[in-house]
């Protein structure tokens, strides 16, 4: 396996920042689409399945002009673990716990992968421990939690077991962030890896649905739903292609900060599409989040760790 210096050994460049912003906005735009689909009868798992399948198929079609992908045991394993940690497990767990702890508290789980990813990367020697970055990521997570769960003291004790189960969501995402960088197949491109992860995720979700005896829930009809699924598939294809380019250019920790873009963008889209309104406390959380992002990505004086990991290209 070819070795290289850690991607985190330099500050993210302008292209990386634009990719983070663009991919985060596209993922946030998926939220009002999913809400519209749920409002007219599509189940969450069905939506997750068609989202991954549609996006994966579009990327396969678009990628036919490039170099063909030769499936190997290494690639199949990479697709399976990536689809499991980034799509199947987080989505399935989130859909299970949302009915028990509420949508707002469930949404806060997606703010936590940044800290978990950074912790795993430091333990594995992929990144150096930085006090400034640690404080920045902590502030960013605090801002997201403040925005999405303004009254955490009101958590019902009966919800605690479900909340603990939900903690596997950020853990799964964090493991996936680190795995995709450290095990990036030699010579593979983002254009080759993105569709594989999406299709593997769709296959795993399909397996869960079939085993649970609810395969009929995947069927749907109506022009409105077909339109939403078509638009969602295009957004998924574009966003995950950009997602893998971002993964290749930066560190797992930087990639994990997508949640810091998705949270405020989701608020703005809620205002634009559903007329939602938010109080001063929510916007205070946005300010805290932005301060954390600036601290986490600003220059540091700490000595950078140059431990070797696999070469993603």
From TrEMBL:
Origin: domain of life: Bacteria
UniProt KW Glycoprotein keyword: no
Domain EamA residue range list: 16-148
Membrane topology field: Multi-pass membrane protein
InterPro entries: AA-Vitamin_Transporters, EamA_dom, EmrE-like
UniProt keyword Cell division present: no
Keywords (A to Z) from UniProt: Membrane, Transmembrane, Transmembrane helix
Predominant subcellular localization, coarse grouping: membrane
Membrane-crossing residue ranges in chain numbering: 46-63, 75-101, 107-126, 135-153, 159-179, 199-219, 225-243, 255-274, 280-298
Compartment annotation: Membrane
Gene Ontology CC terms: membrane
Family: Belongs to the EamA transporter family.
Protein name: EamA domain-containing protein
